[in-house]
Amino acid sequence: MPSSAPSTPGSATDVGPGYRDHLHWQRYQAFFPGALRLSADNAPDEQWWRWRGLKVHVDRVDRPDAPAKVIALHGVGTYGRMLAPYGRLPALADLEYIAPDLPGFGLTGAPLLGATYADWLDCVRDLVRSERERDGRPIVLLGVSTGGRLAYDVAATTRVDGVITTCLVDPARDEVRRVLAARPEMARWSGLLSLVRPPLSAARVPVHWLVNIAAVSNQSQYANLVWADELAGGGWISLRFARSCLVAAPALPPERFTGTPLLLAHPDEDRWTPPLLSEEFFGRIAAPTRSAALRGAGHLPVEESGLADLDRAVRDFLDEFDLQ
């Protein structure tokens, strides 16, 4: 796609329907502790950001006096509004909160031939630059699920002040592909996908055909909601996007990732990406790091014990690096 400078996000009403019309996200709230739940009354403001020919949906909680901003990044099969309860954690509740729907998920469309992982990277990098142009406050990335790897790659190539991830795996490794895929044998398909050329690579398939959405949560009812959500696990992705995620090497080898402090807060009962896979990558990072286990929590943590651990770990991280 041709490059263009990012615009300033505007009101959602300037463009079209928002999450006041697509209400599936409200069904997730019952799984979170009461203080973190969203309703129509306390949901983030909705904005649209015109970026490289796309209209990117952005959730925002403006706090002009906040000492820092957090940009929350979702992974494959989820979207920005699903992360809003994490923004209500006490450790983050005083920060400005921003959560885009990345191309192809949530309310953000995709290019004609389908988005790629490189588009996700460019989108977030431009969003970071746009936020820096607004003011000089520190920016912390919060990457949940495969958004953790995205946060790492953005920080490796664009200046941010901190990275918080719940998952940090390298999908270029066979053992990672096996757990990410809907079925382990599908990990071998990445080579075959490289043979599919446009326009066939733009063909779309259901997300849950390729991705192990059933393991997104240890709460089966929550996982079923993600599976059925047409903006998330029940949506469609292009073969081009699937291949791009599987073959993308880290933007920097972890041994060369030296500047940005990083917290890995991994759910200790993650049935999708076991903690060991993240720890192997995390242990090689040269930058200042902290780690925490989220007790009793699944891949997308909704369990009260894991969320308490996440809040404590985030607070300690922000305190240590003077980000709040």
From TrEMBL:
InterPro entries: AB_hydrolase_1, AB_hydrolase_fold. Residues 70-305 form the AB hydrolase-1 domain. The keyword Hydrolase applies. It comes from the Bacteria. Pfam families: Abhydrolase_6 (PF12697). Keywords: Hydrolase. SUPFAM superfamilies: alpha/beta-Hydrolases. This is Lysophospholipase, alpha-beta hydrolase superfamily. GO terms for molecular function: hydrolase activity.
